Amino acid sequence: xxxxxxxxxxxxxxxxxxxxxxxxxxxxxxxxxxxxxxxxxxxxxxxxxxxxxxxxxxxxxxxxxxxxxxxxxxxxxxxxxxxxxxxxxxxxxxxxxxxxxxxxxxxxxxxxxxxxxxxxxxxxxxxxxxxxxxxxxxxxxxxxxxxxxxxxxxxxxxxxxxxxxxxxxxxxxxxxxxxxxxxxxxxxxxxxxxxxxxxxxxxxxxxxxxxxxxxxxxxxxxxxxxxxxxxxxxxxxxxxxxxxxxxxxxxxxxxxxxxxxxxxxxxxxxxxxxxxxxxxxxxxxxxxxxxx
Length: 292
What we know:
Number of helices: 10
Mean pLDDT: 94
Number of strands: 10
Order of helices and strands: HEEEHEEEHHHHEEEEHHHH
Distance between the termini: 54 Å
Helix content: 40-55%
Shape: globular
Strand order of the largest sheet: 1-2-3-5-4
Largest sheet: 5 strands, antiparallel
Radius of gyration: 19 Å
């Protein structure tokens, strides 16, 4: 059965169904569907153990995110399929999030997710600790005889130093995948979508990911840390933040390395790895320049 057939076979439709592929996804296959009553987005994807994606967790996070006013509603779910409300808006690009007014909206939405989603969660959900994930990715890459094997000892040594530098953390419920394409603007407000990697985590991971994925300036980062925490960042906060920012970029790099081996989506993961490796090395250099 093709993904389109799986979409058409879902039990939630009323009336004739039209299915259009929705671009941009590099973990799931996504579609916009119009039936007799409404438009919806369908995400087709099973569990992906190599990426620690478990769909029960995505479902719980998606429902809680809607209850917190962060994400569109869950309309239906079946094994391997999640149907959510369609947002008539545009997907953001990194250039959008480098503009202070949009960054202010994005940061407020992320902070709301961190603090409000836990009030609405039901049932078991996951934790997301980037350093465990990087170690697990390294084992997966070694088992698969990845072309990146020569890099692994150095990357794991970097990760160990960064984990020590992060220090004690506050615990919030993170989105953990703040790519610009996961922000939608409907002309009035922002929405945050795609909860594949959601889980309890340090807020510094999302803040570091927001900066690394969107090319924020050091001035933007200082503003972001101060605005999020309600105080000027001290040296300890800067150290933990820069370490987590580098770790976020490392995780995205290793995610892509693993995807080179295991994904069957039509996407140039080798080029994505190369781009993210540059981003990671820049983030690591910024950490080392300031903190040794």
